[in-house]
Amino acid sequence: MTIATKIEEAGFRPASRIASIGVSKILQIGARAAAMKREGLPVIILGAGEPDFDTPDNVKQAAKAAIDRGETKYTALDGTPELKKAIAEKFRRENGIDYALDEVTVATGAKQILFNAFMASVNPGDEVIIPTPYWTSYSDIVEICGGVPVLIPCDAEAGFRLKTEQLEKAITDKTRWVLLNSPSNPSGAAYSEADYRPLLDVLLKHPHVWLMVDDMYEHIVYDGFRFVTPVAIEPQLKDRTLTINGVSKAYAMTGWRIGYAGGPKALIKAMAVIQSQATSCPSSVSQAASVEALNGPQGFLKERQASFKHHRDLVVSGLNAIDGIDCRTPEGAFYTFAGCGGLIGKTTPAGKRIETDADFTDYLLEVAHVAVVPGSAFGLSPYFRISYATSEAELKEALKRIAEACGKLA
Ligand code: PMP
């Protein structure tokens, strides 16, 4: 469960659907670190979930051209025909899946795709199986939609991956969805075809369970890892799988707010009903930019991978050199989820005992001025997440400070 600040202001009674939901720990830490920076403290923020490079120039030019052409009005409800075509071609070219245009939907970020999908399909009490550690929004969105997140712990020893027996055990008559994310935010762990296969076999035995896959970090994988998405492995699941993706991470377009998905026509239609009452359509200019992102040159993706891999190696070896920290080498994304179990129970120079991963990350922020996010924010402790989508100089300095701070624990 996310560590949340409850929304309790005098004179305001929040709706019960958000009673247990609040601003995520990631945003809280980001705000605190930014405030410390404004006070002049040399804080290094390794908490952000976005690439540190700029949107490619051809994409920016396409947006400017769309404005000049007057593409500044409402568009078709769940995506322009041009963007849906580019997405269908992307699914064919990169994933080997055929989605017709009415099996494709576009929204204001993959986050809205998730929201539309759960709003359109989950009834009160319906269960959604989510392996932990998980991207914090998953369980909160499910809860807002009246569903029940069923969180399954998958620790470093399990490669942060769900096991077949765990899935079998978690499925009930009320299970509506299983939600898988590969490569994962926050662990960077990814499912190979061999990892996916037994899980998909379990799903084949349970026709009432639908599969939602979040492939957001598809293009950020290392060491020759072969990304594959479940429908390409098991076409029989196509009529009950929603394959989610977006331009935010691969094309450094987090602020453009475009996410998309392929799935069964009836679900896609129901999601459009929700969208029609929420945002009417995604931004026209961002959609034009996304057509160029998907159809334009893709060569820079490999270059970015090489740079991210260099950062990953630096961080993983730097963390593993510290006593009490244990860091698995992730297959993808730009995060590592390091274990800090060896530091629990130690005492800081100020005499405070480190009881939890949040105590440890608070200590790092206060003493080393390095902002990272505790595992508890992602539903699994004792760990912490580092985002390494930042400069090599900052990463080296941060690792040095973390090592020094850990060395002072007794
Ligand atoms: N899925 C995952 C796993 C993510 O990490 C994020 C962003 N942090 C999203 C989905 C949402 O991306 P967006 O809304 O920017 O498309």
Instruction: Predict the CATH topology of the largest domain.
Output: Aspartate Aminotransferase, domain 2
CATH classification class of the largest domain: Alpha Beta
Q: What do the pLDDT scores average to?
A: 95
Q: Tell me the helix content.
A: 25-40%
In CATH terms, what is the architecture of the largest domain? Answer: 3-Layer(aba) Sandwich
Continuous helix count: 13
Main sheet? 7 strands, mixed
What structural class results from the helix and strand content? alpha/beta
Question: DSSP strand (E) fraction?
Answer: 5-15%
- Please give the oligomerization state of what you see: single chain
CATH superfamily of the largest domain, by name, is Type I PLP-dependent aspartate aminotransferase-like (Major domain)
Small molecules bound in the structure, each named once? 4'-deoxy-4'-aminopyridoxal-5'-phosphate
Radius of gyration, taken over Cα atoms and rounded to an integer in Å: 21 Å
Cofactor: pyridoxal 5'-phosphate
Family: Belongs to the class-I pyridoxal-phosphate-dependent aminotransferase family.
Protein name: Aminotransferase
Enzyme class: transferase
